[in-house]
Amino acid sequence: MKEVKYSHLLLQILSGLVSIVLWFAITYTEDPLINQHLTDISVKFIGEDVLEENGLIVVNKDSLPPLSAMIQGNRSKIISSIGDISAQIDVSNIKSAGDAEVTIKYNYPSSINFVKSNIQSVIITTEKIITRSIPVQIETVNQDKNTNFLIKPTCQISSITIRGAQTSVYRIAYAKASIDVTDMTKSNSQKYSYNFYNEKNTQVTDDNIIYTNHDSLPVHNIAYKRISLPITIILPDDMKEEYTLSVKTVSPSSVDVGLSDETEHISELTAIFDSSKKGDNSDYTLDINVPEGVYLPEKYRTVKAVCELVPKVLVDTEVTIETKNAPEGKTVTLNPLKIKVSAKCADDDITASKIHAVVDLSGVSDGETILPVSVTSEENIQIVGSYSTTVTIK
After folding, report:
1. What is the DSSP string of 125-137?
2. What separation in angstroms does the CA of 83 have from each of 39, 86, 228?
3. Stretch 341-349: mean pLDDT
């Protein structure tokens, strides 16, 4: 029973092979005349060099309709000729910008007949070619992954020149190169490729830009040693006399900066309070001061702070005078020993412990002498007036 089934299967296979052989034999022996429909015929533009000499460029290549055609010929000729069939559009006779109707020329071997095409002519749109200078930008990528260094890139040129179709040229706002600084540890100079961007900061790819005077951007990278510094909000000098600042929160409270090898030790960064930069409620967006020799990328140069500007009031408090550099073996008497000090501060809860009054006895001889009293206080307290005491040394 198994042998019968095997024989039957073998006969079916042989029958199929014979059918295929007979089909090829009939096809290539008789080689019948057939019609063949072709789609997506390739298009070649000629005369673009002449068009460019006239200051024009084709801008609608990508929107032209697809071309198709019907051809006729022996099957074997059609099969061998399909790759040789193309269309040609000559734009050399276009003299002015705008729309122009151009006849399509179809190229095909003489061994077949070209029956018809779906399109005999197309509207070609051209624009004037213009030249424009655009600014360049440099951005770093993966600064946060470089834990030891902050990299400051500086482009050696400020702009590049581009040339192309008017609409395309004005669509481009700037050129930007992105630099991956993950593993950068030393200062260096390199060239980087760039991309075009529009005013919405979206990358632009446009084949109608035909010339740039720089294929890459020359960039000098400076490697700064990376450290983290806290941020302190301070009042400008012209406000310290009348106000004190109550800072509740600072965000971020610290930032990573880069220090050059020549930079002296820095313990903090400051942001000067500016009342004009108040947002909702008591929120302020303030600019961080960046000292010379410190690198902080532009996008990290602001800090948000919740703070309150409090007017100072005049407060009197009694303070005991201390002495320094008193002569050994002598009796020192102060009159008065305590003085009433006037100070400006945020409120009237000032205490004597926050103010220090000192009289310096260096070089003072025996007898009675009136000496000035040096009065100091915490930063948010402003001492008003001058003070003195009578010193008697015996």
Report:
1. EEEEEEEEEEEEE
2. 12, 8, 66
3. 80
CB-based contacts of 123, cutoff 8 Å, min separation 6: 60, 99, 100, 101, 102
Average pLDDT in the chain: 90
Q: What is the pLDDT, as a whole number, of residue 280? A: 76
The mean pLDDT of 367-376, rounded to a whole number, is 95
- Is 56 exposed, middle or buried (CB count within 10 Å of its CB: 0-12, 13-18, 19+)? buried
Which residues are CB-contacts of 119 (< 8 A; sequence separation ≥ 6)?
A: 65, 67, 104
Strand partners, 171: none
Q: Cis (ω within 30 of 0) for the bond into 327?
A: no
- By the 8 A CB rule, do 292 and 266 touch? no
Where are the extended beta strands (E) located within 65-158?
Answer: 69-74, 86-90, 98-107, 113-117, 121-141, 149-155
Residue 157 makes CB contacts below 8 A (sequence gap 6+) with 136, 214, 217, 218
State which H helix or E strand residue 50 sits in.
Answer: helix 48-53
Identify the three-state secondary structure at position 91: coil
Q: What is the pLDDT of residues 242-263, one digit of tens each?
A: 888 889 999 999 999 999 888 8
How high is the pLDDT of residue 96? 96
Q: Which two tokens stand for residue 305?
A: 């702070």
Assess contact for 257 and 225: CB atoms under 8 A: no
